[in-house]
Amino acid sequence: MATMTLSEELTWRGFVNQSTFANITELDEKTRTFYHGFDASADSQTVGNLAGMMFDKVFMRHGYKAVVLAGGATSLIGDPGGKDKERVLQNEETIAHNIACAQEQLQKVFRGQQFTMVNNLDWTKTMSVLEFLRDIGKHFSMTSLVQRDYIAKRLGQGGAGISYTEFSYTLLQGMDFLHLFDTMDVTLQLGGADQWGNCLSGVDLIRRARAADTHVITMPLIINKATGKKFGKSEAGAVWLDPARTSPTQFYQFWINVDDESAEDYLKIYTELDKPSIDGIMAEHRHDPRQRVAQTRLALEVTQLVHGDDEARTAQDITAVLTGKKPVGELTDAALTAMRREVPAATLAADDGVVQALAKSGLAASTSEARQLLKDGAVYVNGQPATADTLAADQFQNGRLLLRKGKVLKNTALIERS
Description:
The protein is an alpha/beta fold. It folds into three domains: about 5-220, HUPs (Rossmann fold, 3-Layer(aba) Sandwich); about 235-340, Tyrosyl-Transfer RNA Synthetase (Orthogonal Bundle), CATH 1.10.240.10; about 345-415, Roll (Structural Genomics Hypothetical 15.5 Kd Protein In mrcA-pckA Intergenic Region, Chain A), CATH 3.10.290.10. It is built from 19 helices and twelve strands. The strands form three sheets. Strands 3-2-1-4-5 form a five-stranded parallel beta sheet, with helices on both faces. Strands 8-12-11-9-10 form a five-stranded mixed beta sheet. A two-stranded antiparallel ribbon has the order 6-7. The chain is elongated and about 80 Å long. The relative contact order is 0.09.
């Protein structure tokens, strides 16, 4: 993106929401040190958090110094923003574990880039209540705080109320900015649109306590244009970066299945491909949308970024097999092992046929149900309709075949001969 300035690239990628700058071209005038905090309430980040990391990487590519803040203290309280009721508080050991997991994920996504990681528990755990009230609390006006949208909603008629613990969250976040301003010359905070008010707490605190100007820029929440819902939520819940929560194949297939309307936006947000590359991909995609060129490239790029080249290739191969674009017999041993974790798998005896395969794999609850499925023409072997119970030797490729119930890909099983 050498031909674009920082402000131009942020605008082109859709990363600009709100800012304290009169004009974001001020970002181009000099490099700064920024910080971006992340929540440590779970042991994995999600694709929503990944968008924030990609936001950071744009600044890093343009020479800005990055400070990534782990919310070891603030996660113990929980951000009340966007919540209708009090969060369940977690203990310090759980939060420390979550931070360690997040750090590993951040290092993968930021590989090749320098960043400093800090934990706000380090400068809050020894602070006394009196110090907090005298040095931080006195700079905040209750009038402006109770007018914050999420606080007003909780305090208003029908609201669940808000504890002093959650009410204090925004003061702690403001204190983070002040501490990093004092110790690391941080003058810019990045955040999501839902953090705008909390980010301003730091700007206001630094102005009052240090008579200095600092800035904030937030990125929009990523919305699925087809559904109007916050991006990154699947039927089963969040899409995680941890392979133990969302496998690399599931992760790859999540991106393969994004809608045409949003694919270009996601290529800009979730990859580092430049404008000519994305323009070329989209031109090819629009020529024949059925080939899903944009989604395929998106899935490969993001899976490589999060899980590495080997896992991305394995996910690509498994998906190609499940969609009939590649024979199951061509899977490598590593891909075959991964596939056994992705779909139901069964090993058949020499005389077992389709009915036994359906029952043993769990595609049918019983042999009688399996016989009915076969009779109804609802069974496919390697993508072809099964017309008899018998499985011929030539249907197996390197000792394996794919069995499917109906036309839904998720009802596919891997069948192997013993």
